[in-house]
Amino acid sequence: MITGGQLLPVPSSPTQKHWDFGVPLGEQAVIEVPFTETILISRHVKTDELHNYLSQLAVSDFFDPRTPFPKAADVMGRSAQRFVIDVVIMRNGERRRAIARGQDIYAISAPLACVAVERLLEGKFRHPGASAPGFIFDAEDILASLGPANSTFKVIAA
Description:
This protein is an alpha+beta fold.
């Protein structure tokens, strides 16, 4: 997490909150978790506070050895699992929110990783060396190459 402009570890007793993800997930208990994206975001955006939360249900499912592996639920091989990525940004008293929703997050993240690897192998990147993806790739171009993939994205002033 970032607090006071400093990168800090998430406390061993993470903060629990409730978040309304909208339809179809509704309100969920969420807990603060460490994500590598925190470091990536801090490379691109100067921020005083940044916290990542994941639904308590998703965390519990992940750590429960009885949780079954997802099964294909459609002809594209995607699971029936739904995801919501909800980002709230506040600056100078103005608040904006970006929401991405879809089915089977791995049906989006796996092709995204493959496109990135393909571009690396073809030499289609801006700078060599270890860098954040947004620094070496044209993010809009990569996302456009994926097609609609049954997800939606919108930015709203909240």
